[in-house]
């Protein structure tokens, strides 16, 4: 078993298991992939690619959705 | 009196009133207010998911995208690059190609940075977005935005959230007269008379948020706004009487008693 890796999600550091994908991360955070848009190091990752995109140490992830606004 | 439908970016809309979803005391009031407004276009903002409260659902938990047309904004963006980033994220949510583009230039007045707005418009139009640009009431900027490919130009009535009403009817009227694309007044109306007066200038529609959300009774105000927008539109189409600075009697001046 290798050590967990550290990533930054919405500005906060988090540890995830090595070889986790973005889809795994959403699972850990209990987020529905259809309800969020994912940006990895400033590049949007489309939904079908979430499961194939592996996380690396130091990755910066933004998870966004729609909120109230004018 | 027959009216043309409002068409933006090739899409036809029933209502000339568009509403925001911010600042409501609770979501139930927001949903009822949107219903009462009769609006079809409803704006939303793009923000980080709150990871500590993942059970707190986003807007899609409350709004049915089959019933309303979700118009994402780039509110809170102060540079063209930032606005472009938010627009791309909004489009990735998968509802439509429309973006209400805001590039803010000043924190106190929330007035637009027109240079950034033009730059962001060009990039986004190139990427296939249908851009509706929030701008000030400057004709030259409006003309440039239209040239850059905006599908609608959105001059303000007065600053965002101010409720000061239509400060300069002349400039808004001029923009409407000179542009071919729809002109939707965005921001500044405070109450129904402001909305009515704005529509009487001949603009194609109004987008508002705070005037409804911050009213004492948002659902009632939403209904008032619906009527005001319809009344203002109808009055514009009807063509008002000329103004005169002397009185002209409405009753016959003949047939009076000796």
Report what the structure shows.
The complex is a heterodimer of chains A (70) and B (258). Chain A is mainly β. Chain A has one helix at 22-28, and strands at residues 5-9, 12-16, 37-40, 43-45, 60-68. Chain A is 10% helix and 37% strand. In chain A, strands 2-1-5-3-4 form a five-stranded mixed beta sheet, with no helix packed on it. Chain A is globular and about 45 Å long. The N and C termini of chain A lie far apart (49 Å). The mean pLDDT of chain A is 94. In chain B, 35% of the residues lie in helices and 17% in strands. Chain B is built from eight helices and ten strands. In chain B, strands 4-5-6-7-8 form a five-stranded parallel beta sheet. Chain B has a three-stranded parallel beta sheet with strand order 3-10-9. In chain B, strands 1-2 form a two-stranded antiparallel ribbon. In chain B, strand 7 (130-135), helix 4 and strand 8 form a beta-alpha-beta unit. The mean pLDDT of chain B is 95. The chains are: A mainly beta (70), B alpha/beta (258). The interface between A and B is medium-sized, with 23 and 36 residues.
Core attributes:
heterodimer, A: 70 residues, mainly beta, 5-stranded mixed beta sheet, globular, B: 258 residues, alpha/beta, 3-stranded parallel beta sheet, 8 helices
List the helices and strands and how they pair.
The complex is a heterodimer of chains A (70) and B (258).
Chain A: E1 5-9, E2 12-16, H1 22-28, E3 37-40, E4 43-45, E5 60-68
Chain B: E1 6-8, E2 11-13, E3 17-19, H1 27-37, E4 41-48, E5 69-73, H2 80-92, E6 98-101, H3 114-126, E7 130-135, H4 139-147, E8 152-155, H5 169-178, E9 184-186, H6 192-200, E10 205-208, H7 210-213, H8 218-238
Parallel strand pairs in B: 3-10, 4-5, 5-6, 6-7, 7-8, 9-10
Antiparallel strand pairs in B: 1-2
């Amino acid at each position: 078993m290798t050590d967990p890796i550290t990533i930054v999600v919405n500005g906060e550091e988090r540890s995830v298991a090595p070889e986790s994908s973005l889809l795994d991360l959403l699972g850990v955070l209990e987020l529905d992939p259809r309800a969020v848009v994912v940006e990895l190091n400033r590049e949007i990752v489309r939904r079908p690619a979430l499961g194939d995109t592996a996380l690396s140490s130091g990755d910066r992830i933004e998870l966004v959705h729609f909120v109230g606004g004018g | 009196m027959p009216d043309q439908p409002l068409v933006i970016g090739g899409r036809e809309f029933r209502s000339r009133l568009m509403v925001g979803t911010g600042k409501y005391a609770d979501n139930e009031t927001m949903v009822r207010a949107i219903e009462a407004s009769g609006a079809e276009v409803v704006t939303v903002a793009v923000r980080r998911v709150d990871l500590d409260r993942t059970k707190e659902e986003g807007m899609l938990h409350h709004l049915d995208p089959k019933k309303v047309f979700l118009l994402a904004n780039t509110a809170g963006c102060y540079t063209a690059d930032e606005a472009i980033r938010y627009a791309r994220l909004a489009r990735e949510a998968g509802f439509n190609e429309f973006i209400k583009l805001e590039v803010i230039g000043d924190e106190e007045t929330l007035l637009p940075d027109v240079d950034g707005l033009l730059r962001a418009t060009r990039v986004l139009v190139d990427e296939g977005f249908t851009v509706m640009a929030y701008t000030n009431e400057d004709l030259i900027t409006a003309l440039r935005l239209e040239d850059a490919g905006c599908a609608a130009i959105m001059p303000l009535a007065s600053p965002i959230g101010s409720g000061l009403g239509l400060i300069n009817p002349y400039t808004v009227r001029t923009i409407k007269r000179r542009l071919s694309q729809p002109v939707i007044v965005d921001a500044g109306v405070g109450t129904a008379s402001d909305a009515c007066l704005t529509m009487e200038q001949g603009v194609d529609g109004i987008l508002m948020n705070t005037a409804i959300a911050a009213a004492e009774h948002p659902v009632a105000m939403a209904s008032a706004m619906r009527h005001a927008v319809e009344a203002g539109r109808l009055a514009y189409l009807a063509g008002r009487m000329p103004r005169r600075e002397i009185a002209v009697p409405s009753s016959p001046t003949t047939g009076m008693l000796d």
